[in-house]
Amino acid sequence: MRRSQPLRETEWTLRPADPAAGPRTIGVIDARVPGCVHDALIAAGIIDDPLRNANEAAARWVGETDWIYETRFTLDPSAADADRVELVCAGLDTVATVFIDDAEIGRAASAHVTHRFDLRGLASGEHALSVHFRGPLAAARAEERARGTRPVNGDWGPYAYLRKPACHFGWDWGPQLPTAGFWAAPVIETWSGARICHVRPLVRTATPEAATIDVHVDFAHATPADRRVEIRLTGPGDA
Question: Which of 45, 56, 90, 194 has minimal CB crowding within 10 Å?
């Protein structure tokens, strides 16, 4: 059985890794998850809406700065009975290091894939979760120095070096607002035996009367065992 505990309802805070990184000293501010750094800074009155006037250029420092999101959560005692306990992050944007109680549990470098971090052995009770995001502009430039300069369309910086939505760095008509944060809330997930990771149906042939469909199912196994999969296809009118 799989149980999920979303962390979007917990109280999140945000702060720059360097309080003096911006035009003025910034302390700890409230944040929403899912959400991004720019939204939190606007809500706190630290930056003006970057879609208005010349505020886009004035907010460029945000993309150069490293940011730290923090919250606390309670791990239910029932987690000890599960084969697997994982912190599931489907929406880390983008270059991040994840800590539980100041101990690093993993890193991420893509906003386009789900990251799962093992929490087995974590005691029940309250814990601190901290996610440290590299400033996307700084991270992209570091990759450029390591890998060599490549052509970039426009003057939007070396965005191609990050597995991050390119539109954050600007477009023909879009603002240059490379941000950091979460496009989906982290989840504490417990499960035993096996879990289904992906289901990929592939239609081979189709007529009004019949169809041939291959269904590929990917599993993660906590314990080795043969698994039986039952697949039901339902058409219009429950046909």
Answer: 45
